[in-house]
Design goal:
heterodimer, A: alpha/beta, Rossmann fold, four-stranded antiparallel beta sheet, B: alpha/beta, four-stranded mixed beta sheet, 6 strands, elongated
Chain lengths: 254, 381
């Protein structure tokens, strides 16, 4: 299953990290949604943030996209400390909810987000809609699309400005296996084009499509590595089992 | 601030409203129906018909008075029936065969002030007040005919020449301003709430768009629709086009034909400034709502006090002292006053009162826009 992974991390070490978290903490009152997280993520790779609901994946993504300010620590994207508005033009963000305007057509939605990102010209819009196979439905009102089509439009809206860094918050929730496979093929193609992609998921069977996994539990990164590495460390072939074992270690040492 | 991004948001808002046929109907058709209905009721409302029962405790003089009273009431289509006693009169009111019972006191013929008592059922205060004043008029007219002395009549003229026989004239400007404000608030509030709950605002904030650009784009988008609405409303309110009889239809006129003293353009400016304030208010209040229903639930909190305290229905001068300070806090007060200044008093830009209204409306629009921008939360300005 790991045959399609990009070159191992060692070979890409020369490239500067696209995303860097340093001692990142986000506290909501006494609760630490993100608890002292540090990592570096490199271009051209797909990183999977894996963890149960409420483990802090979305908060972590919000810190990295500058949608929230860290309580402590630092989040950097493309060498700039977040939050920073200027960097936003180079980040693609697909939210958990579709985040598209149901009253607008497919084309209007994509063009609106392109304009919001400050994109001139129509190529980005055309390519993004072509990628998700919606270029034949430009004039369809988004509210009348099927759930899967809406998800595809949502992805396209995150791609209209050809971002070098892409955050996808549970992009494949509620879509059928066929579309899911399609999405992963898109992600892989974008990564091969040099993009840094962070995908959050609580579905373990998607993990092997990522180049590297970050297991998130109670706001902490409890394990990091390729699927094979994580399996070896946990001493099991089953990722779900590995997640549980690694997680219980953390719980025990707390 | 980037003009292109503001324009993109403006276009987005306009596209969405245009496809939302119900909102378009709400903005454009409903105010016309409402003002039409209000005008029709106020202009064509019926004078109450008095059906009186009279209890005569004054003996012979009372019979004469009762006769004169009957003659006066019948002139206006009313009736007056003399009944034997108070119990009968009360029963007549109770079962609805009479609208007013009038008691002529024993000392009626004596010199000095006299008090006549009337009795109504007390269920319909406005209607019964009208009944009471109709009875009062009939009594005056009866006294006049008995004494043979004609009573003086009052001729009412106004400083600005507003016709006193068209009750809607001073009332209409307020209604126009209020409706524009109200509908723009509702539409913006719901629209922005959808933006917040639908995840599009979160997504928009993940782009380089600034909060100011969002508010400016919204103000432009809904301002444009407010413009269309206001132009239509003013044309409807001020215009009067006679349509000749076609086939079985009788001739009728389209438009309310309200008399105006000032410039329609200035009236438009007043309403537009008020509407821009309503856009920001809608954005601001959508922060405190979780559902569209809650936006509607803010109406009693935000809109009704403005309706009551801005002099639309109840004259400001008639409000209790304790409420007076609040009048100045209501944005609609300035819209209503400004419209009256323009449409009724014929004020121009040189009129200080209008300058104050325009200034306050503009300041409120800017202030609310700033507050609205602050409610759009993001770490990146």
């Amino acid at each position: 299953m790991t045959t399609q992974t990009a070159p191992p991390g060692r070979q890409t070490l020369e490239a500067p990290p696209a995303i860097r978290a340093t001692g990142l903490v986000k506290a909501f009152g006494p609760i630490r949604a993100v608890d002292d997280v540090s990592f570096e993520l490199r271009p051209g790779r797909i990183y999977g943030l894996l963890g149960p609901n409420g483990s802090g994946k979305t908060t972590l993504i919000r810190l990295l996209t500058g949608m929230a300010r860290p309580t402590r620590g630092r989040a950097e994207v493309l060498g700039v400390t977040m939050p920073a508005r200027a960097v936003l033009a180079r980040i693609g963000y697909m939210t958990q909810s579709d985040g598209i305007y149901p009253g607008l057509t497919v084309g209007e939605n994509a063009r609106f987000f392109a304009a919001a990102y400050g994109v001139r010209g129509t190529e980005g819009v055309r390519d993004a809609l072509h990628l998700v196979d919606l270029d034949g439905r430009l004039d369809t009102v988004a509210g009348t699309l099927s759930g899967g089509q809406r998800r595809r439009l949502s992805l396209a809206c995150a791609l209209v400005h050809r971002p070098p860094v892409l955050f996808l918050d549970e992009p494949t929730v509620g879509i059928d296996p066929l579309l899911r496979a399609e999405f992963w093929a898109h992600f892989r193609a974008l990564a091969e084009g040099g993009a840094t992609i962070v995908v959050s998921s609580h579905v373990m069977d998607e993990a092997d499509r990522c180049d590297e996994l970050l297991f998130i539990r109670s706001g902490k990164v409890i394990a990091r590595g390729t699927g094979a590495e994580v399996r070896a460390r946990a001493g099991t072939d089953d990722l779900e089992e590995a997640f549980l074992r690694l997680g219980s270690d953390v719980e025990a040492t707390r | 601030m980037s003009g292109r991004r503001i324009l993109a948001i403006f276009r987005r808002v306009a596209q969405e409203i245009r496809r939302d046929h119900r909102s378009v109907a709400l903005l454009l058709v409903v105010p016309i129906v409402m003002t039409g209905l209000i005008t029709f009721i106020v202009r064509e409302g019926q004078t109450p018909v008095v059906e009186a029962v009279v209890v005569n405790r004054a003996g012979l003089p009372g019979v004469v008075v009762a006769d004169a009273l009957r003659a006066a009431l019948e002139k206006d289509g009313g009736t007056a029936t003399v009944v034997a006693d108070e119990a009968t009169a009360r029963r007549a009111i109770e079962d609805g065969t009479a609208s007013v019972a009038l008691f002529l006191p024993a000392g009626l013929a004596q010199a000095g002030p006299t008090t006549l008592t009337i009795l109504t059922d007390g269920l319909d205060p406005f209607g019964e007040a009208a009944q009471a004043s109709a009875v009062q008029r009939a009594i005056l007219s009866a006294v006049a005919s008995l004494t043979g002395r004609a009573l003086p009549t009052i001729e009412h003229t106004t400083l600005y020449g507003t016709p006193t026989d068209d009750p809607i004239a001073p009332f209409a400007p307020a209604i126009l301003g209020f409706l524009a404000y109200f509908f723009v608030y509702i539409l913006t509030g719901v629209s922005f709430l959808r933006e917040r709950t639908g995840g599009t605002l979160e997504r928009l904030m993940a782009t380089p768009v600034t909060r100011g650009e969002v508010v400016a784009g919204y103000a432009l988008g809904f301002g444009a629709f407010a413009t269309v609405q206001v132009v239509l409303l003013l044309a409807w309110g001020l215009g009067s086009v006679s349509v000749p009889a076609v086939g079985p239809l009788p001739p009728f006129s389209v438009g309310l034909g309200l008399p105006i003293a000032g410039s329609p353009l200035l009236a438009f400016l007043v309403i537009l400034l008020a509407s821009l304030g309503a856009v920001s208010l809608g954005i601001f209040l959508s922060t405190f709502a979780r559902t569209e229903l809650q936006v509607v639930q803010f109406i009693p909190v935000v809109i009704v006090p403005q309706f009551l305290l801005s002099g639309i229905l109840f004259p400001v001068s008639g409000l209790p002292d304790i409420l007076q300070p609040f009048v100045g806090l209501m944005p609609i007060t300035y819209a209503v006053d400004g419209l009256r200044q323009v449409l009724v008093a014929g004020a121009g830009l040189a009129t200080p009162a209008l300058q104050l209204d325009l200034g306050v409306l503009a300041a409120l629009a800017v202030l609310f826009a700033g507050v609205a921008a602050l409610t759009i939360r993001r770490e990146v300005a």
